Amino acid sequence: MRRSLRGALRCLGVKVCRRSVLLVVLLWLASWLFLNGLVFVHRNMFSDFCTDDKSKEILQRVCAEYQQGVLTGDLCEDLCVAGRVEYKRCLYYENGKKVMAASWRGVPVVLKSKLENFSSYEALALLEYQDAAGGPGGEEELSPLDVVFYATLEIKNSLGLETGTNLTLPRLWGQKLKENERTYSRAELASLWALLQQEEYTFLRVLQDLTHHVAKILGSCGHFYAVEYLAAGHAWDQHIFSLEELTLSPSPSPWSGQEKITARDMVPRVALSFLEMVEHFENDFSHSLHLCDIKPENFAIRKDLTVVAIDVDMAFFEPKMRDILEQNCTSDNDCNFFDCISKCDKTKNRCGPKRKNSNLQVICEKIFRPWFSPTLLGAKAGLPLQVELQRAVQECAEIDSGEDVKRTRAVRKQLQDLLVELIQEDSGNQGEGQEHKMRRVHTALNF
């Protein structure tokens, strides 16, 4: 009887085992078919969009409109006539937004436009008014002051700043326009207007005269503008930034001679630049600048290890941030706008206009915490300085920055001190003179 029972159980176990194996195989096969189906659909739906042929066709159309006098820019001559702009590959295409890699006079650049066609942008009403006022062959012309006025209004409207705001760019940019003391062609005004309708261009153009922590715009042709090529971050890379990709960056490298920097040595230096960027964005403009989409892919580094914001579609100055946050709500969850959050006032069912967290808190949570985790640090994780740094990062990630400003400043100062000490410790074997040279490389180290 027992033998029969054991035999039955053994047989049952084998059957269950076989069924489990079969189930796993079928599940794997179904997953494989599903993923391959997605790839097939994706390729068929989007293969015509982000291809070399499509990209070159778009650039040819831009050059045709340049030759017709419809659009212009300081990049057009090299792109359409001299052949000094060499197309490399398509990087991104979605809903008309086109991003391409190219080389301009031997320097890697990224060509970008929010919309594919120049005609897709809203026409400048000022030109239509000029036509109506002057008519064909009319003598009425636009003065540089007219251009400054309309450009200023568009910039402030795009950034969500009040008309009376003390914005720096229109003064700087306006001064350049005034110095020209000439009228502007229809192609120049139409091209400027198409660029100003692109929030990212406006943002980068505003900030690049004020900070080195944003990507630089190098030139434009019609609605396309060229941005410096930088080594972007990767969510899948434990070091986030790749040293190998720095070789493509056009900025000069401070690491020469016998000096060599490893990925592990790079981390505290880049972290210091993150802290410098945060402090700069919060205190050095007319309004605080909020980053609502903080992830490695939205940042890059130059060869001098300066952190650069390369995607500012979700960056907002304080006035616009308040308008975004102040919405109807029933709980705090309704007041989350990506990485920018506020609290729900349940007596009014309205989200507070003031941000509860901060750029620093989110950077500590999403970037610093993985960077300085024991997994990444390995054998160094147990060292006293590393343990103290991990605790400071954890406190920074959990702090309610919007409500405890004094504590936030103290935590930021602690992080800066620990990172500087870590760099000094790592470079101690290179001698005092060499250490001073390395500390001089990045402005974030000059306290």
TrEMBL record:
<keyword id="KW-1133">Transmembrane helix</keyword>
<protein>
    <recommendedName>
        <fullName>FAM69 N-terminal domain-containing protein</fullName>
    </recommendedName>
</protein>
<dbReference type="Pfam" id="PF12260">
    <property type="entry name" value="PIP49_C"/>
</dbReference>
<keyword id="KW-0472">Membrane</keyword>
<dbReference type="InterPro" id="IPR011009">
    <property type="entry name" value="Kinase-like_dom_sf"/>
</dbReference>
<dbReference type="Pfam" id="PF14875">
    <property type="entry name" value="PIP49_N"/>
</dbReference>
<keyword id="KW-0812">Transmembrane</keyword>
<keyword id="KW-1015">Disulfide bond</keyword>
<keyword id="KW-0735">Signal-anchor</keyword>
<dbReference type="InterPro" id="IPR029244">
    <property type="entry name" value="FAM69_N"/>
</dbReference>
<dbReference type="InterPro" id="IPR022049">
    <property type="entry name" value="FAM69_kinase_dom"/>
</dbReference>
<comment type="similarity">
    <text>Belongs to the DIPK family.</text>
</comment>
<feature type="domain" description="FAM69 N-terminal">
    <location>
        <begin position="17"/>
        <end position="175"/>
    </location>
</feature>
<dbReference type="GO" id="GO:0005789">
    <property type="term" value="C:endoplasmic reticulum membrane"/>
</dbReference>
<keyword id="KW-0256">Endoplasmic reticulum</keyword>
<feature type="transmembrane region" description="Helical">
    <location>
        <begin position="21"/>
        <end position="41"/>
    </location>
</feature>
